[in-house]
């Protein structure tokens, strides 16, 4: 299966390392890598990944090739997140479907803001859209629901999906100052230079939107998620609560209202979604999810309450989630080549 990587930053490079290290056992050939300002490289015969990984700048300069012109069966969309518009990533994906490619992404923006259009385009071209990495690295969420929850309905979701704010509040519980914990997250490249997306809950709201729309058939936007800011005062509160044996964790909470049918068609599920600091006691399954770790609790009608946790992930776990999506696509017989292949 020929892959085009759009974006070659932290995740793109981690994926290239993984594909290179396991190349003997994997059915993939990277035929294109395209960046915004660091050049691009296209070769239908396949790129030598060890060589590409040594380069800071890719050899081809000038105007970037269009997504539709890339000689690939799947587009791996790993460009920069725009949490307000989801662009230009959503347009890249629509163009890939029109050209007969599958799409795998770690980019939350287009999935939170353009899911219906992307699904329609995937359906129209009989291609797959996969985005396991968008919510919590390789913590299985969508794969879990697909594989283990057939016919079950998810009524409620609680979770820790923001590594940066969980790290800050976990550090505060150990007496570390808010500013120092934030600076460490920035130094490690986990928090962005401008951390407001994390602290004001936009990152978590985008993830809650994806979970609600994909797993609960809701139709919400990030702005519909009620957000409380994680501030220095929250850090002090976390320190005080820890002294009494509790924990303050940055939680998303999504509750579905009972579903109504309207004139024979199923309305989207109404949900109430929020993000903010919540006090947990030691019996709560999310109490022990410390530091960079993430977890989700799914409350279902048939499968009861399921909790999954990913302990202290790194960027390699994001790349692995992308790989699991690609392997799933590669295992379908129709994936082998593009429907509208060019010579
Ligand atoms: N890092 C993580 O731990 C993590 C976890 C989950 C999800 N994600 C998501 O994964 C995606 C990639 O993250 P990252 O950390 O790898 O970001 P990054 O290091 O900033 O890399 C982004 C890459 O996208 C390229 N790019 C930007 N706009 C482009 C365009 N219009 N066309 C082609 N290439 C373009 C950039 O090129 P230049 O360098 O030339 O500007 C760069 O190579 C983001 O959407 C992020 O939200 C990341």
Helix content: 25-40%
**Silhouette:** globular
Count the E strands.
Answer: 14
Query: Which compounds are bound in this model?
Result: NADP nicotinamide-adenine-dinucleotide phosphate
Q: Would you write up a description of this structure?
A:
The chain has 343 residues and is an alpha/beta fold. It is 36% helix and 20% strand. The protein has helices spanning 10-21, 49-53, 89-98, 108-124, 133-136, 142-148, 163-173, 178-187, 196-199, 202-215, 232-243, 315-330; strands spanning 2-6, 29-34, 40-42, 74-77, 102-105, 129-130, 154-160, 226-227, 247-256, 261-262, 265-266, 271-280, 294-300, 305-310. The strands form three sheets. Strands 3-2-1-4-5-6 form a six-stranded mixed β-sheet, with helices on both faces. Strands 8-12-9-7-13-14 form a six-stranded mixed β-sheet. A two-stranded antiparallel ribbon has the order 10-11. A hairpin with a 5-residue loop joins strand 2 and strand 3 (40-42). Helix 4 (108-124) runs parallel beside helix 10 (202-215), helix 7 (163-173) crosses helix 8 (178-187) and helix 7 packs across helix 11 (232-243). The site of NADP nicotinamide-adenine-dinucleotide phosphate has 23 residues, from helix 1 and helix 12.
């Amino acid at each position: 299966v020929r892959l085009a990587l759009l974006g070659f930053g932290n995740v793109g490079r981690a994926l290239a390392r993984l594909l290179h290290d396991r190349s003997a056992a994997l059915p993939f050939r990277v035929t294109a890598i395209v960046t915004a300002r660091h050049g691009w490289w296209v070769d239908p015969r396949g790129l030598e990944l060890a060589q590409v990984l040594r380069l800071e700048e890719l050899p081809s300069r000038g105007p970037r090739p269009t997504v539709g012109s890339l000689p690939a069966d799947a587009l791996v969309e790993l460009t920069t997140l725009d949490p307000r518009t989801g662009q230009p990533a959503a347009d890249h994906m629509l163009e890939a479907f029109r050209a007969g490619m599958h799409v795998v992404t770690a980019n939350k923006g287009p999935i939170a803001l353009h899911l219906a259009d992307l699904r329609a385009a995937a359906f129209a071209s009989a291609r797959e859209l996969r985005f396991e990495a968008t919510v919590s690295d390789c913590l299985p969420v969508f794969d879990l629901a697909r594989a283990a929850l057939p016919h079950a309905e998810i009524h409620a979701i609680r979770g820790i999906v923001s590594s940066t704010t969980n790290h800050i509040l976990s550090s505060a519980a150990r007496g570390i100052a808010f500013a120092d914990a934030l600076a460490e997250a920035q130094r490690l490249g986990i928090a962005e230079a401008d951390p407001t997306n994390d602290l004001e809950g936009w990152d978590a709201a985008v993830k809650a939107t994806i979970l609600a729309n994909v797993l609960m058939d809701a139709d919400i936007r990030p702005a519909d998620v009620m957000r409380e800011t994680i501030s220095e005062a929250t850090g002090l509160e976390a320190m005080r609560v820890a002294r009494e044996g509790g924990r303050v964790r940055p939680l998303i909470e999504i509750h579905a209202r009972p579903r109504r049918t309207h004139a024979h068609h199923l309305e989207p599920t109404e949900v109430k979604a929020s993000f903010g600091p919540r006090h947990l006691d030691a019996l709560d399954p999310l109490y022990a999810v410390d530091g960079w770790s993430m977890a989700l609790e799914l409350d279902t009608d048939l499968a009861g309450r399921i909790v999954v946790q990913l302990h202290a992930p790194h960027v390699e776990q994001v790349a692995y989630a992308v790989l699991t999506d690609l392997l799933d696509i590669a295992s379908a017989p129709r994936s082998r080549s593009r429907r509208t292949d060019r010579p």
